[in-house]
């Protein structure tokens, strides 16, 4: 038996967790850490959020917490058996062990159990199906720890059964592969077969759920390999990706942006050939307005908006920002530079602040230009001069320029 005593594990024992543990112990209900947090702790990471599992039913937990005067937060999780308690400024999400009775590929009807193995059985991947006692004892019914050490991603039990319970698990398989596997192409053939046979099931999954997973895949490792696999296994068409995605461009761009922290949309846009591809993605996945605009921007400008030859390579990008009337052009240009793999220019761009045009209509009135139309024309001419000077001319130089004009 394996017992974990790492600093990351010790650090979980806040005053809040100690109080929760005490309450459960008093009532003889078992409480363990479940799922992703166990995987993270075993990998030596500090988990972002921690889920707990227990043998106590929701009703028993409510009764126990209420009589101890603990505040419960209503997160609509109760019908799935989850109670959220708040102690010492910290939320604790605790879920009763359960068995899925009926599943339709999207949601499950559950009944409660006190059998830890039965609960582990209905989880998706072996590395996500482990429990950790508060004493550090590991409960691992499906060799999840072995798989984690060997960087293996496997479904619990039969892949096709797990997938048919919730088709989103196909994308979860890819996401965790990108997090845990060491190299591309290390899949069990039977798993890929099960994914291919069930790909169509993704058609019934909501766009929002798919987009959450897809974004994580796009920012993980092996993304080029995984997206290629989505095409090979017939998944792409069901999740809003273009039928004839540009896989060559995708391979090139995923290399470009390896260490540049791109937005998911920046990575994905390299698959797209035309702006309809962005529109179709939006129809299927309901991406945000900002994401859609970024995709359209990149498709439109990735070819012709490129660095200048000569001493001022950034100038075309700076000119574009200066001419733009939109608020977040700067961040779109930075994403474009990542897409193009221009690491040095990106750093420069991030340091650059757009200068503000030094002359106003008020200055021109003082010089005796009175009609609004003339002021507009003069300002435009001065703006052009200012741009030619690389935005270096100051107010005095510009105004003396006006006299010449």
From TrEMBL:
KW Magnesium (keyword) present: yes
Gene Ontology molecular function, alphabetical: metal ion binding; nucleotide binding; nucleotidyltransferase activity; tRNA binding
Record carries keyword Manganese: no
Keyword annotations of the record: Magnesium, Metal-binding, Nucleotide-binding, Nucleotidyltransferase, RNA-binding, Transferase, tRNA processing
Named cofactor requirement(s): Mg(2+)
UniProt GO cellular component terms: mitochondrion
Stretches that traverse the bilayer: none
Gene3D superfamilies: Beta Polymerase, domain 2, cca-adding enzyme, domain 2
InterPro entries membership: Bact_CCA-adding_enz_type3_sf, NT_sf, PolA_pol_head_dom, PolyA_RNA-bd
Family assignment from sequence similarity: Belongs to the tRNA nucleotidyltransferase/poly(A) polymerase family.
Name the record gives this protein: TRNT1 nucleotidyltransferase
Originating gene: Trnt1
């Amino acid at each position: 038996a394996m017992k974990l005593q790492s600093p990351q594990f010790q650090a979980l024992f806040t005053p809040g967790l100690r109080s929760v543990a005490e309450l459960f112990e008093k009532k003889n209900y078992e409480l363990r850490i479940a799922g992703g947090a166990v995987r993270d702790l075993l990998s030596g990471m500090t988990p972002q959020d921690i889920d707990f599992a227990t043998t106590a039913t929701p009703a028993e937990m409510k009764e126990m917490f209420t009589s101890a005067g603990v505040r419960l937060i209503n997160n609509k999780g109760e019908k799935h058996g989850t109670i959220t308690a708040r102690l010492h400024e910290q939320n604790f999400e605790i879920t009763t062990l359960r068995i899925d009775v009926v599943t339709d590929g999207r949601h499950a009807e559950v009944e409660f159990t006190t059998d830890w193995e039965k609960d582990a059985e209905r989880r998706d991947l072996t590395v996500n199906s482990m429990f950790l006692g508060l004493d550090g004892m590991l409960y691992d019914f499906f060799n999840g720890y072995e798989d984690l050490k060997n960087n293996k991603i496997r479904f619990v039990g039969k892949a096709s059964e797990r997938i048919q319970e919730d088709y989103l698990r196909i994308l979860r398989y890819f996401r965790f592969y990108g997090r845990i596997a060491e190299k591309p192409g290390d899949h069990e053939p039977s798993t890929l077969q099960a994914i291919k046979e069930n790909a169509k099931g993704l058609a019934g999954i909501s766009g929002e759920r798919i987009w959450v997973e897809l974004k994580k895949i796009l920012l993980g490792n092996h993304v080029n390999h995984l997206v290629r696999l989505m095409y090979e296994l017939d998944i792409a068409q069901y999740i809003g990706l273009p039928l004839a995605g540009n896989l060559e461009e995708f391979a090139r761009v995923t290399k470009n942006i390896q260490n540049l922290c791109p937005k998911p949309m920046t990575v994905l846009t390299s698959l797209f050939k035309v702006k309809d591809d962005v529109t179709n993605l939006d129809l299927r996945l309901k991406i945000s307005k900002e994401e859609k605009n970024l995709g359209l921007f990149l498709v439109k400008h990735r070819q012709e908006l490129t660095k200048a030859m000569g001493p001022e390579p950034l100038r075309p990008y700076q000119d574009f920002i200066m001419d733009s009337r939109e608020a977040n052009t700067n961040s779109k240009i930075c994403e474009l530079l990542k897409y193009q793999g221009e690491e040095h220019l990106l750093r420069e761009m991030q340091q650059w602040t757009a200068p503000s045009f030094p002359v106003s209509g008020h200055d021109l009135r003082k010089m005796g230009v009175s009609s609004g139309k003339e002021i507009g024309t003069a300002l435009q001419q001065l703006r052009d001069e200012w741009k030619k000077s690389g935005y270096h001319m100051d107010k005095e130089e510009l105004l003396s320029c006006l006299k010449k004009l």
